[in-house]
Amino acid sequence: MFFYLSKTINYLTMPMVIIGIFLLLAIAIKNIKQKSLCLYTGIGLFFFFSNDFIANEIAMLWELPPTPFTAITKKYDYGIVLTGVTRLDLQPTDRTYFGRGADRVTHTVQLYKLNLLKKVIISGGNGSLLRLGKQEADDLAAAMIVMGVPKEDIIIEKESRNTYESAKALTIMMGEKLKHSNNLLITSSYHMRRSRACFHKVDIPVDTFTTDFITHPRKYTPNVLVIPQVDALANWHILIHEWTGMIAYKLAGYI
Question: Where are the domains of the chain?
């Protein structure tokens, strides 16, 4: 029930959904003052959420910074990479289709080849509302094998549907092993705060390695300061999704 409720709340908090609601109210409401209020609110929210400078500044406060490979001073027993970066609905199914966030995989492979990881754990099944037969962890494993990671050094957990379920499933699959190992958690920078909290909740110690950044260096060009940007709207959706997820996980006792 929590899984479906969290997905529904996520859709309702999308910036474009909120803007659309105000614009629809502006059409439907008869009262002139209320109609004007809804119209100007919708337009104002559109320019706010589509402003790249504002979205980038907020994201910079939220994302955790990258870790240079040269700053890693120990070898980890396990690199735990979370799924959520592929498209499972495309054909043919004999290959891996990456969306954004492919560097969760490529950076994990790089860490392994730099001899900083002994083994790789891929955790995550299918997080969509519609239960598909194909599981994302299998796709990521197939891609890593093509990139040169030996099959015997990859451990797959593919039943979990969200981050907390991933952490919980790994405690069951691995027993006490992870609790006494050096573990490196690898996921998108905007997702790391929630992910780290979930693993700490189930007493799995992790260091963090962030990937897939939505921020960019601060700029003061007209396209950043003034012109509405689709990417800014998308980044707000990502941020709000993480914030509502943190609140929901806290209420559910997941973090």
Answer: 2-63+227-252, 69-211
Rounded CA-CA distance 60/50 in Å is 16
**12-70 per-position pLDDT tens digit:** 778 999 999 999 999 999 999 999 999 999 999 999 999 999 999 999 999 999 999 99
The pLDDT, as a whole number, for residue 31 is: 94
Is-contact 101 211, C-beta < 8 A? Answer: yes
Based on its alpha-carbon atoms, the radius of gyration of the chain, rounded to whole angstroms, reads: 20
- CA dist 23 and 20 (Å) reads 5
pLDDT in tens, 195-253: 999 999 999 999 999 999 999 999 999 999 999 999 999 999 999 999 999 999 999 99
In angstroms, the Cα distances linking 123 to 166, 234, 243 are: 6, 25, 22
CATH architecture assigned to 69-211: 3-Layer(aba) Sandwich (3.40)
Residue 102: CA count within 13 A, CB half-sphere: 9
| Number of Cα atoms under 13 Å in the Cβ half of residue 182 | 10
209: helix, strand or coil: strand
